[in-house]
């Protein structure tokens, strides 16, 4: 028969009752064994003492039950039933107490386990927050370092930009000065060309004058020869003609000397013109190099210098 809550079962046979008592004892021993095997039970000395006391009571009851079972033939049925009832009552009370204690221990274990999980979770969150704080600190330090580096780069770029502006301004002034010098050189080249042209004209005039002089001398010589053969006796006139020829020859030599001097002056002017043209070419090359250098040094800013220069035309010397 089944046991009801708060009452003892009724047994018709003594062997059934003994089996029930042994089963209850075995179950009680199993509960006690489970409590002893618990980690938190080992940590709680008070509950350990209570469990030990209950175990001792159960052992005493077991011994008493065995003694009663052994001596049941010598005792009366009434006494035996009374003792059985008392034992069963005590077993039921002890079982209920064990159930309550087991439930309380289970609740305590669950609560401690929950607290342990809460502590573990809190510790993990603490470690995670600590790692996150360290990461944020490291990230802030990196951001600060990068910001300082960027500020320094901006300062260097501003300084370099100012330096390049000053340098470009200086080169602009220098370029203006060069343009002024180029204009002066152009004027000098024009003046030199004019002088060369005048020298060529003078040389040409002297050349024609020399030719005319030679022609006159030839005409006079022809006349002199004709008069010499016509009148052999006019010796004195011949001598005078010879003297005139000598004067013409001297004048011719003077004209040749003047032509030589003019030629030398023309050569000097041509050399000066060549030197001026070479200097002009060098200045053009320098201006081109400075423009290229300025363009390479300042990629963010584009400074355009436009120089309008006329093509130089050199007239050939006649």
TrEMBL record:
Keyword Coiled coil among UniProt keywords: yes
Coiled-coil stretches noted in the UniProt entry, renumbered to this chain: 44-78, 106-202, 252-286
Biased composition (Basic and acidic residues): 290-299, 308-318
UniProtKB keywords: Coiled coil
Coiled coil found in the keyword field: yes
Position of the signal peptide: none
Residue ranges of the region described as Disordered: 290-318
Official protein name in the record: Sigma-E controlled sporulation protein
Organism expressing this protein natively: Bacillus licheniformis (strain ATCC 14580 / DSM 13 / JCM 2505 / CCUG 7422 / NBRC 12200 / NCIMB 9375 / NCTC 10341 / NRRL NRS-1264 / Gibson 46)
């Amino acid at each position: 028969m089944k046991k009801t809550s708060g009452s003892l079962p009724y047994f018709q046979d003594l062997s059934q009752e003994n089996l029930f008592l042994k089963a209850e004892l075995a179950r009680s021993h199993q509960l006690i064994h489970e409590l002893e095997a618990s980690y938190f039970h080992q940590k709680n000395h008070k509950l350990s003492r209570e469990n030990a006391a209950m175990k001792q009571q159960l052992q005493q009851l077991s011994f008493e039950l065995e003694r009663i079972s052994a001596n049941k033939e010598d005792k009366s049925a009434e006494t035996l039933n009374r003792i059985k009832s008392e034992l069963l009552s005590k077993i039921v009370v002890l079982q209920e107490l064990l159930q309550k204690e087991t439930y309380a221990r289970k609740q305590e274990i669950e609560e401690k386990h929950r607290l342990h999980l809460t502590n573990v979770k809190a510790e993990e969150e603490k470690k995670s927050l600590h790692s996150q704080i360290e990461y944020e600190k490291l990230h802030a330090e990196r951001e600060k370092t990068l910001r300082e580096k960027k500020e320094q780069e901006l300062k260097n770029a501003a300084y370099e930009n100012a330096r390049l502006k000053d340098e470009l301004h200086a080169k602009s002034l220098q370029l203006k000065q060069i343009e002024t010098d180029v204009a002066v050189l152009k004027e000098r080249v024009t003046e030199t060309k004019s002088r060369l042209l005048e020298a060529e004209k003078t040389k040409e005039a002297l050349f024609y004058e020399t030719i005319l002089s030679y022609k006159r001398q030839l005409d006079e010589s022809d006349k002199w020869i004709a008069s010499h053969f016509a009148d052999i006796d006019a010796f004195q006139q011949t001598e005078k003609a010879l003297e005139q020829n000598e004067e013409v020859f001297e004048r011719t030599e003077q004209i040749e000397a003047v032509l030589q001097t003019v030629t030398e002056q023309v050569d000097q002017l041509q050399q000066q013109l060549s030197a001026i043209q070479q200097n002009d070419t060098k200045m053009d090359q320098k201006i081109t190099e400075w423009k290229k250098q300025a363009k390479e040094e300042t990629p963010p800013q584009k400074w355009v210098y436009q120089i309008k220069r006329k093509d130089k035309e050199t007239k050939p010397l006649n």
